[in-house]
Amino acid sequence: MITVKRTILCLSLSSLGGCSQDISDLQTFISQTKSSHVGSVKPIPQFKPYESFSYSAAELRDPFVATVDIEDDDTTKTSLLNPDSTRPREPLEVFPLDTLSMVGILEQNAQLWGLIKDPQNIVHRIQVGHYMGQSEGRVIEINESAIYLVEIVPDGIGGYIERDASIAIGGD
Q1: Three-class SS state of 150
Q2: pTM
Q3: Distance of CA 169 to the CA centre of its chain
Q4: Which one of 62, 123, 132, 171 counts the least CB within 10 Å of its CB?
């Protein structure tokens, strides 16, 4: 047991002796690194002094007030055009028009059908007169390259206008 204690004591003394190495080369490296690196700080930017602005057009017309009275006139073209709310909706009218894509055409018994793929990857057959899209889009022409529609959209002043739209083949 005494020999084990002496062995441990000798080993611990020898390990302490290894900790007292010369570290002057490390200190020299640190001092050289500190002296060689000179940091630079950018100067504070100079700001231009604030120039006040005096609004001198207060007596002019307010751009947010209408200068022309807009009257409801039942004889206007936009008031005659209205979406048909009694018409039964077709399956492709639940999808926005830009989410539908034309994938081809089909000719059957001398009738031309357009093939439309919806966002759920289901292909539908449509003909001239069918509806698709969320703006009352009625198909007016089908050919090999595109399907043409006429949509009924609000005109911004309480009425509706017709707008042309199309879906080209391969347009995902």
Answers
A1: strand
A2: 0.53
A3: 24
A4: 62
